[in-house]
Amino acid sequence: MTLMDNQRTAATWTKQYISGKWVDGTGEKMLENINPYTDEVIAVWRSSSKEDIDRAYQSAKKSAVEWKAALPSVKEGVLRKMSSLMNERKEEIIRLLITESGSTRIKAEAEFAAAKRVVDESASFPFRMKGELLPSNTPGKENRVLREPKGVVGVIGPWNFPLHLCLRSVAPAIALGNGVVIKPASDTPITAGWLIADLFEQAGLPEGVLNVVAGSGSEIGDYFVTHPVPKVISFTGSTEVGRGIGKLAGEQLKETALELGGNNAMIVLEDADIEHAAQAAVFGKFLHQGQICMALNRIIVHANIYDRFLQSFVDKAKNIQAGDPADPSTLVGPLIRQKEVERLLKLVKQAEEEGAKLLLGGTHEQAVLQPTVLADVKPGQGIVQQELFGPVALIMKAKDEQQAIELTNDTPYGLSGSIFTTNPERGYHAAQQIESGMVHVNDQSVNDEAHVMFGGEKSSGIGRFGGEWAIDKFTRTRWISLQHQHRDYPGVK
Description:
The protein is of the alpha/beta class. The chain has helices at 50-69, 72-88, 90-101, 105-122, 162-175, 190-203, 217-226, 239-251, 274-286, 306-318, 338-353, 401-409, 424-431, 467-474, and strands spanning 16-18, 21-23, 30-34, 41-46, 132-134, 141-149, 152-156, 179-183, 210-212, 232-236, 255-259, 264-268, 296-302, 357-360, 364-365, 368-369, 372-375, 392-398, 413-414, 417-420, 440-441, 457-458, 461-462, 475-483. It has a 7-stranded mixed β-sheet with strand order 14-17-18-13-12-20-21, sandwiched between helices. A 6-stranded mixed β-sheet has the order 9-8-7-10-11-23, with helices on both faces. β8 (179-183), α6 and β9 (210-212) form a beta-alpha-beta unit. The longest helix is centred in the first third of the chain and has 20 residues, at 50-69.
């Protein structure tokens, strides 16, 4: 597939989008957009410069003034039109996700659905911005608490779920009356940036409200964060980069929304439905090659059922199809870069040297790493404390429920998690003891619903996305009081 198969020309997918215009970047670097499965160069574009960022932020700031004042029905209409356009262009969007990010069709379909739900949920936000009238102890005073957009939001998008995870911030921010500037991941500038701008442009969003500046983090990343215009920086990506962004933003007293790494675990208790748990674990581990912040890293199984679960899990993993992401039957496609294969194989080899047993996989064809299963993994092994971000499953044994919970919490991360048991209330009680932002009983860890809060604890991030939590994140409250009668002040005549 080439970009010419899409509605937009190749030229459009190499331009920056600033003030409603598709323009060339003015940075020093030329960057390549590469298909991770075929290694084909999809497109070449010139990076944004600091001057481009200045123009983008100033455009968003200026346009946000009028956009803030637009009627709720106007804002809703743009989001509804956006949703309709996504339906019309669904096949194009899915093909772009497959081509640019190495998404399998299974994953691309799921990402499209999740992204569209975010847009649909955000369409209701203009009518959900509620103020308050509060009483006062001062005679004749009326206290009004207003809710209004924060101004301009800077969004730094990831490459793994580029469309969904960018729209998770962009759609709510725009629906609530903010201006937005996106800096998409350099691996996926189309689906994390230009495609979103194109859809909003077609949907009738006024010029300048949304802008896209694409370039390497080393050239423009810090300036994007420290620029004086944006009030909020939303970032989805690694914990290491997130810490740096948090530090830069903190120095500028900017608010952040940081959704970072995960080292998620599934606990399989002795009363669990083994087949159901194994099926869920395979999906939660290997969807999108494990390149999901919510993906399972560790599967912690009660000793009484360990062998039976392990057999079931390996049998199911053997039947996974790996290879061409465009094949509808493929579950495991290419990793985003070849060096990620090398990184993971090095970790697997080290784990074997430390006593883990390689039961499946450990081989690759170019960037496609076959589903890999390591059993008898011990807590002290180096591979246990890392976010793997690849199709490598770690199976661990726990003597009882309490040890399983302790092993689950033995990580700096705390994003998502999973517990399998035939007693849901037992699962709920165990979930309350797990140090993570999200836990799913009798389901795997990869869950995201547009109207429900999303976010992690510890090194997995700061802030919450979704529903009412997104409204809180991208708006501010202000107190304006009205004194309706003369007020006397003690000591003043």
